TrEMBL record, chains A, B:
<dbReference type="Pfam" id="PF13378">
    <property type="entry name" value="MR_MLE_C"/>
</dbReference>
<feature type="domain" description="Mandelate racemase/muconate lactonizing enzyme C-terminal">
    <location>
        <begin position="199"/>
        <end position="295"/>
    </location>
</feature>
<dbReference type="GO" id="GO:0050023">
    <property type="term" value="F:L-fuconate dehydratase activity"/>
</dbReference>
<dbReference type="InterPro" id="IPR034610">
    <property type="entry name" value="L-fuconate_dehydratase"/>
</dbReference>
<keyword id="KW-0456">Lyase</keyword>
<dbReference type="InterPro" id="IPR036849">
    <property type="entry name" value="Enolase-like_C_sf"/>
</dbReference>
<keyword id="KW-0479">Metal-binding</keyword>
<dbReference type="Pfam" id="PF02746">
    <property type="entry name" value="MR_MLE_N"/>
</dbReference>
<comment type="similarity">
    <text>Belongs to the mandelate racemase/muconate lactonizing enzyme family. ENOSF1 subfamily.</text>
</comment>
<dbReference type="InterPro" id="IPR029065">
    <property type="entry name" value="Enolase_C-like"/>
</dbReference>
<dbReference type="GO" id="GO:0016052">
    <property type="term" value="P:carbohydrate catabolic process"/>
</dbReference>
<feature type="region of interest" description="Disordered">
    <location>
        <begin position="428"/>
        <end position="448"/>
    </location>
</feature>
<dbReference type="InterPro" id="IPR013341">
    <property type="entry name" value="Mandelate_racemase_N_dom"/>
</dbReference>
<protein>
    <recommendedName>
        <fullName>Mitochondrial enolase superfamily member 1</fullName>
        <ecNumber>4.2.1.68</ecNumber>
    </recommendedName>
</protein>
<dbReference type="InterPro" id="IPR029017">
    <property type="entry name" value="Enolase-like_N"/>
</dbReference>
<dbReference type="GO" id="GO:0000287">
    <property type="term" value="F:magnesium ion binding"/>
</dbReference>
<dbReference type="InterPro" id="IPR013342">
    <property type="entry name" value="Mandelate_racemase_C"/>
</dbReference>
């Protein structure tokens, strides 16, 4: 590995016109064009690593600009130099004396960090000839710990506590790995009930999902209470009393409003309300959790939780009952490891956020590692699944009987098809050129 | 005003090579090149508005990219259309269905929002022929309230409560305005004790400051405890027992470390410890506040507090004893109004962050308004002052006897000298061209 110097980094703005069909629509994001900032790094011996971060269309060019600003930290580095002091490398990217001002560790710059580091982890896993989850599972606990920046979280989790968790996780690890290879990791689906879908489409999609083994369903809520009641009733009727229902407001409410609104939906027995309010409102989530606990409804959040310091506080304040890590919002695998270990210490289940473009492909690796080496439990745990855009990936997720089957190809499942990248580049790719031609102009949101 | 349509927006990357002299150096930002993303908007009748956000050099180009992404919301709008529904306009900028994903309301995109809205406020004040503070002071309380987005803060401050505070603030307002015009708003200085300054320079600057009426001094700490002890002792000896000393760690510590370290500096009787840990760590600041209260040391933070939701929680959790608003980190005047009103309700004094490039020029307007119309108190209140780079502004701050004298020129004091902007544009301005010429190459950090 020692000869492997990273000599090139390129980044592309890849957008899919999903708003045309209302895929991905929710109470706050009514017309997303699912997109990625797509990073490719290349070594002097011809190995490539692929990384991405997910976006909703407009603004992806800003993330590209941030990736370019970070590229100087990567180009010229040897892979072994990075992974032998991954904590130090992580700190370089996230704590540059000038650049941290425009973060720190949040928003655009953290999304860019995720894209770049996801590419580095992909490169590392490929160089070892393993899928990322397997690289993590086989890694010495001390080495794993050396990838984590513990700054600002030692009051909740010390390095020694983290190591102890990982050492304990070594027990029974082989059996759990075999179990995963055989049965996969349980999933739930969000594909049936986007906010913009009419009832008929909801019913049809739900029927199809039930027939292929899905038992856990998430419904988008928060725009109109009467609509929510009707849609939740419809889904609950279709999935029956034993099916699992989750609801997701995508930050639509203030604290008081969240409690009132969700109380009105309690009769449909949702397992959780997801993102009831601002992702920054730790104390607000704590208040909502407390108010909804008597109704048996938990609070889930995390897809817009921007770093480990925020997750630390959500856990300290008992502000969430389900931790939704995201493979592209946090600072890549490094920061996700910190969150998995904190969640384990606080005994809160991790149920990853997925969907978008590539989020399922990436996050499956992390949750497999969580089960095999950290939590060792499937209680109240499942990984989100959305059936969009997988066809653009070289190693798309494999779902069998509503379970994620562990990927076998080396890497982090981040590589996209060259053809897909080329066609969807914004604005010059042919998909966008066609949409912007006069005949198609009338379509909403097809261009930013 | 109705004819005033905004027809143009331009943005420039303006950087000053302050790292050459260690100005602005602290425990986390060792070599800042003080910079701005500088926005100019122009109306069809030739009026201009100037806005900026402060940065530390590298990454300013990312903020520019974000400003360009926001420009579509501004160009083509009439000024009266904006100010007649400023809350709605604010929401458009901060909650675009696609773009909010890369924030929301934090980091790069919020800094860009600040730059753009600061220009709009400057334009508004100029169109009324008033300095911004006076525009605010004269404004009907209901109109002021209509500029604020209360989303996510109604559990701490309702619209009615905010209005009541402003109505109460009308009493005695004229006298307080006269008092400010005569005596100015009290200031403290950070210019004497940057971390990179040797002791001899500290002494000399402190002597000069004392001779011109300064009595309140801030010292940068956090890199080395023995150095901190020596420097604090030196400053305390020079300013005497009645002088006010503040210390600032710029986020250097974890929670436990912050308590231990500051306890060692308690003998020098600092009024506050500023930014002891991560700006995102509300519960951490609360723990530090609690531990230091018996020592009579308060906690101050805010310059990297990214939005009103974070300030709300800092107040709810009694996590800070001094609220340090920033004119460019939050979403311009609109979001700062929300924070001033929340601070008033929670009875915590506001002591603004300033310095950088233009921060003193801008924030003086906000703190004048706070005194005249909101807090009506000077107890434990003062505004930061740093004596750098004012010469690049058309209406630089006027300090008299360690007080900010209210600006009289129309606008938000945001306009820079054309010559300064031209010479410091990065990388093409002549200042940077010279620094990058072979003869100067050896200098550290002169180019990003």
């Amino acid at each position: 590995m020692s000869k492997t110097e990273i000599v090139r980094l390129s980044v592309s703005d890849v957008r899919f016109p999903t708003s045309l069909e209302q895929h991905g629509s929710d109470a706050m994001h009514t017309d997303p064009d699912y997109s990625v900032a797509y990073v490719v790094i290349e070594t002097d011996d011809g190995l490539k690593g692929y990384g991405l971060t997910f976006t909703l269309g407009k603004g992806t060019e800003i993330v590209l600009c941030a990736v370019e600003a970070l590229s100087g930290f990567v180009i010229g580095k040897h892979l072994d130099e990075i992974v032998n002091d991954f904590r130090g490398f992580y700190r370089q990217l996230t704590s540059d004396g000038q650049m941290r001002w425009i973060g720190p560790e949040k928003g655009v710059i953290q999304l860019a960090t995720a894209a770049v580091l996801n590419a580095v982890w992909d490169l590392w896993a490929r160089s070892e000839g393993k899928p990322l989850w397997k690289l993590l599972v086989d890694m010495d606990p001390k080495k794993l710990i050396s990838c984590i920046d513990f700054r600002y979280i030692t009051d909740a989790l010390t390095e020694q506590e983290a190591l102890d968790i990982l050492l304990k996780g070594q027990e029974g690890k082989r059996q759990r790995e075999e179990q995963m290879l055989e049965k996969g990791y349980p999933a739930y689906t969000t594909s049936c009930a986007w906010l913009g879908y009419p009832d008929q489409q909801l019913k049809q999609l739900c029927t199809e999902a039930l027939s292929t083994g899905w038992t856990r369903f998430k419904v988008k809520v928060g725009a109109d209470l009467q609509d929510d009641i009707r849609r939740c009733r419809l889904i609950r009727q279709m999935i029956g009393p034993s099916g699992t229902l989750m609801i997701d407001a995508n930050q639509r409410w203030d604290v008081g409003e969240a409690v009132t609104w969700v109380t009105r939906l309690a009769e449909f027995r949702p397992l959780w309300i997801e993102e009831p309010t601002s992702p920054d409102d730790i104390l607000g989530h704590a208040a909502i959790s407390k108010a909804l606990a008597p109704l048996g409804i938990g609070v889930a959040t995390g897809e817009q939780c921007h770093n480990r310091v925020m997750f630390k506080q959500l856990l300290q304040a008992s502000a969430l009952q389900f931790v939704q890590i995201d493979s592209c919002r946090l600072g890549s695998v490094n920061e996700n490891l910190a969150v998995l270990l904190m969640a384990c210490k606080f005994q809160v289940p991790v149920c990853p956020h997925a969907g978008g473009v590539g989020l399922c492909e990436l996050v499956q690796h992390l949750i497999l590692f969580d089960y095999i080496c950290v939590s060792a439990s499937l209680d109240n745990r499942m990984c989100e699944y959305v059936d969009h855009l997988h066809e653009h990936f070289k190693s798309p997720v494999i779902i069998r009987d509503a379970h994620y089957m562990p990927p076998k190809d080396p890497g982090y499942s981040t590589e996209m098809l060259e053809e897909s990248v080329r066609r969807h580049q914004y604005p010059q790719g042919e998909v966008w050129q066609e949409l912007q031609s006069p005949a198609k102009r009338a379509r909403p949101s097809a261009h930013s």
